């Protein structure tokens, strides 16, 4: 699941994700 | 004491809702009814006003490697790209809000992903109602107002994208929820223990049970004259699932038929194998 949802996973782990 | 705990929970959710979502329902309704004292939103009602609005309003566009190529795409696709960009922002806002729900970040990480994958669009369409009325929708943080008729006049299948959301919004807005109610309602949506593929359902159900009690009390306190509101609101959750199913089917159709159009990778991973 983690592999298929890398961006969601990143959003959960890190609030910035400014590259989206 | 139990009621006091539920009130503290509702207050906490209301506070984090304000931190997570820049355009609240209170602000949106003030703009829609002309009570802000600021200038009225720029009305987009046809292709010419859309073109004019692109200069007037700071439409947020996704970063694209080739701006020239983007300019050449037709108006429907460019409009859809703006909608997508707003959806991605909304997913980010909803994720931040979800992380503030007590107990959410302690859930299994895979389950957190699943809850967001299935919940974000239901939350987006619940909150979209706040910026809509029967005639149109606020866009670009309330700087613009796009009419329902204009959205209906777009070429197929783009014209079919928003109409079900307007139908839902009119009925949902009749419940007259405010931001403090919505904060608890969207928490209930996120904590749905029946999403496919959840690993550890029990702690999610326990959190949702508590959240449902907080919602019931919130509505009793905030809407003493509407004793059926809690039951009516729970029924809306079924409507939301139907809207999301149709929305995802339409996105999948667009992906196949509009070869010029890119679906944002975050939205792709959300809609893949969803329903």
User: In sequence order, what are the helices and strands of chain A, one letter per element?
Assistant: H
End-to-end C-alpha gap of chain B: 41 Å
Oligomer: heterodimer
Strand content of chain A: under 5%
Strand order of the largest sheet of chain B: 1-4-3-2
Number of strands of chain B: 4
- SS class of chain B: mainly alpha
Low-confidence stretches of chain B: none
From the spread of the alpha carbons, the general shape of chain A counts as: elongated
How many individual helices of chain B? 12
Rounded mean pLDDT of chain B is 93
Rg calculated over all Cα atoms of chain B: 19 Å
Main β-sheet of chain A: number of strands, strand sense, barrel status? none
Number of strands of chain A: 0
Overview of the molecule:
The mean pLDDT of chain A is 82. Chain A has one helix at residues 6-13. Chain A is mainly α and 20 residues long. Chain A starts with 5 loop residues before the first helix and ends in a 7-residue tail after the last helix. Chain B is mostly helical and 275 residues long. Helices cover 64% and strands 5% of the residues of chain B. In chain B, strands 1-4-3-2 form a four-stranded mixed sheet. In chain B, β2 and β3 (136-139) form a beta hairpin. In chain B, α1 packs across α10, α6 (109-128) crosses α11 and α8 (163-173) runs antiparallel to α11 (229-257). Chain B is globular and about 60 Å long. Chain B starts with a helix and ends with a helix. The mean pLDDT of chain B is 93. The chains are: A mainly alpha (20), B mainly alpha (275). At the A-B interface, α1 of A face α5, α6 and α12 of B.
């Amino acid at each position: 699941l983690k592999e298929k949802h890398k961006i969601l996973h990143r959003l959960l782990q890190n609030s910035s994700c400014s590259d989206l | 004491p139990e009621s006091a705990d539920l009130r503290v929970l509702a207050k906490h959710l209301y506070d984090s809702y304000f931190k997570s979502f820049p355009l609240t329902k209170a602000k949106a309704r003030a703009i829609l009814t002309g009570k802000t004292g600021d200038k009225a939103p720029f009305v987009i009602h046809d292709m010419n006003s859309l073109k004019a609005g692109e200069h007037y309003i700071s439409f947020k566009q996704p970063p694209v490697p080739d701006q020239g190529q983007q300019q050449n795409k037709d108006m429907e696709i460019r409009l859809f790209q703006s909608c997508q960009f707003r959806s991605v922002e909304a997913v980010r806002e909803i994720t931040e809000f979800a992380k503030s729900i007590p107990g959410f970040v302690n859930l299994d990480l895979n389950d957190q992903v699943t809850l967001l994958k299935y919940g974000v669009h239901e939350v987006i369409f619940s909150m979209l109602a706040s910026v809509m009325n029967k005639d149109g929708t606020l866009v670009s943080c309330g700087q613009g107002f796009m009419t329902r008729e204009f959205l209906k006049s777009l070429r197929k299948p783009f014209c079919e994208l928003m109409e079900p959301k307007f139908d839902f919004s009119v009925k949902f807005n009749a419940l007259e929820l405010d931001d403090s109610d919505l904060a608890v309602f969207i928490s209930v949506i996120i904590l749905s223990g029946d999403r496919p593929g959840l690993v550890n359902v029990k702690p999610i159900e326990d959190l949702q049970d508590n959240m449902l009690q907080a919602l019931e009390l919130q509505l009793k306190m905030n809407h003493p004259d509407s004793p059926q509101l809690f039951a009516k609101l729970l029924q809306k959750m079924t409507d939301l699932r139907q809207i999301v199913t149709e929305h995802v089917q339409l996105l999948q159709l667009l992906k196949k038929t509009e070869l010029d159009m890119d679906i944002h990778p975050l939205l792709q991973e959300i809609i893949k194998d969803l329903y």
